[in-house]
């Protein structure tokens, strides 16, 4: 039997990575890893649940987009939709969601699951929609952690929202960057500076980025929201619930009971 050559593991480093490099790297990474991601996390996410992060906070109880009965008839844009689980839940409430993702392969998983949700493959920094197209926008760990210029994305979202529209997005809590990305005891000791904004980059043997994640402090995130024309009305840091025994990357019951894993920003376009 002929053995297929095994691709070398990418090198993990901290270095600068701009808009174009980050976009190219992350589109490729999600296309290559969408199958594994959906296999590993699909049961937790469900086919038609709206989960904000590894803690399992569900929009059914959180109502960060508003009471479910008020979603009926609303036009909603989901950024970084993956397999469109959140959009599928929104559609079940009577909303009119559009699921957008930069990864074609992630959206193929949305097609596999099925449902009445329009799918759009596009960059969140250049939204292919007219001004004032949506009443609401949401993103559960989508787009914002992976872009070099979050204000570019936020201003695009503001453009396509109608006056009074709401944007709710979740990201890994910024405190995560000071700790190793490990779910066990080794992940509980500070290993780096919270204030180091240098992006995390995985690169191949030629130094080409194949995955990029960008760090913003909590203050940075607030300033990005305000500078992009939004009013921040709430900042939610979900506690780890007793029922959740899962591990997700560096997050686990051990770590989640001590430090926050997710930050959710609730914003209004005045």
| Low-pLDDT runs | none
- The whole-angstrom Rg is 18 Å
Total helix count? 7
Q: What spatial form do the alpha-carbon principal axes imply? A: globular
The major beta sheet can be summarized as: 7 strands, mixed
How far apart the termini lie comes to 64 Å
> Which strands sit side by side, in order, in the main sheet?
4-3-2-5-6-10-9
- Residue fraction in strands: 15-25%
Structure class = alpha/beta
Mean pLDDT: 96
List the secondary-structure elements in sequence, H or E. EHHEHEHEEHEEEHEHE
What is the helix fraction of residues, given as a range? Answer: 25-40%
* Extended strand count: 10
Plain-language structure description:
The chain has helices spanning 19-45, 59-62, 85-92, 104-113, 150-160, 218-227, 253-256; strands spanning 11-14, 75-79, 96-101, 119-121, 134-140, 161-172, 200-203, 209-213, 231-236, 262-268. It is α/β, with parallel strands linked by helices. Strands 4-3-2-5-6-10-9 form a seven-stranded mixed β-sheet, sandwiched between helices. It has a three-stranded antiparallel β-sheet with strand order 1-7-8. The longest helix has 27 residues, at 19-45. The radius of gyration is 18 Å and the shape is globular. The protein starts with 10 loop residues before the first strand and ends with a strand.
């Amino acid at each position: 039997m002929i053995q297929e050559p095994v691709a070398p593991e990418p090198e993990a480093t901290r270095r600068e990575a701009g808009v174009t490099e980050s976009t190219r790297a992350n589109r490729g990474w999600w296309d290559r890893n969408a199958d594994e991601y959906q296999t590993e996390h699909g049961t937790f996410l469900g086919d038609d649940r709206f989960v904000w992060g590894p803690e399992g906070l569900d929009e059914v109880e959180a109502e960060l987009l508003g009471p479910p009965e008020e979603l009926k008839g609303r036009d909603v844009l989901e950024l970084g939709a993956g397999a469109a689980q959140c959009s599928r839940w929104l559609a079940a409430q009577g909303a009119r969601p559009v699921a957008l993702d930069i990864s074609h392969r992630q959206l193929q998983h949305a097609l596999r699951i099925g449902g009445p949700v329009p799918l759009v493959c596009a960059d969140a920094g250049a939204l292919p929609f007219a001004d004032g197209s949506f009443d609401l926008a949401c993103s559960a760990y989508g787009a914002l952690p992976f872009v070099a210029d979050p204000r570019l994305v936020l201003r695009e979202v503001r453009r396509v929202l109608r006056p009074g529209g709401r944007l709710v997005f979740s990201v890994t809590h910024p405190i995560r960057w000071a700790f190793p990305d490990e779910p066990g005891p080794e992940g509980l000791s500070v290993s780096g500076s919270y204030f180091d904004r240098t992006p995390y980059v995985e690169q191949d043997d030629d130094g080409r980025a194949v995955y990029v994640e960008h760090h913003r402090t909590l203050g940075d995130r607030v300033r990005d929201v305000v500078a992009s024309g939004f009013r921040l009305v709430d900042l939610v840091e979900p506690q780890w619930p007793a029922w959740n025994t899962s591990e997700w990357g560096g997050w686990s019951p051990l770590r989640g009971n001590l430090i926050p894993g997710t930050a959710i920003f609730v914003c209004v376009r005045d």
